[in-house]
Design brief:
With 103 residues, this protein is an alpha/beta fold. It is built from 3 helices and 3 strands. It has helices at residues 12-19, 40-52, 75-85, and strands spanning 2-4, 57-63, 88-92.
Length: 103
């Protein structure tokens, strides 16, 4: 089974995959653009390649604000890839807290 985050995705996804007994080698990091957003074309290519290699794509892990950079993946385009490829789409969102003003 394959799962598709970017390298900017939260580390808890790897932990979850390992806890389920699937193994982190089944997380396939998808290329991102200069703004650290998932590249939908690269995602589609990775899914097709994995299917050709006999793997079973399961889900895409997109971000609506990454922890480190706040990058927001192009969710509409990724949703289109997931619909076409018949994959589950998980959207992970990070919340940042403004710095304390000291008041």
């Amino acid at each position: 089974m394959k799962f598709y985050p970017t390298g900017e995705g939260h580390g808890r996804h790897q932990k979850a995959i390992e806890l389920m007994g699937i193994g982190s080698e089944n997380l396939r990091s998808v290329k991102h653009d200069r703004s650290l957003r998932m590249n939908p074309s690269a995602l589609n290519d990775a899914i097709r390649e994995d299917r050709q290699n006999g793997d079973l794509p399961i889900a895409v892990i997109a971000s609506a604000g990454t922890v480190n950079t706040g990058a927001i993946d192009p969710l509409d385009e990724i949703a289109d890839v997931c619909e076409h490829q018949k994959l589950w789409l998980h959207v992970d969102g990070a919340r940042t807290t403004p710095a304390s003003t000291g008041t």
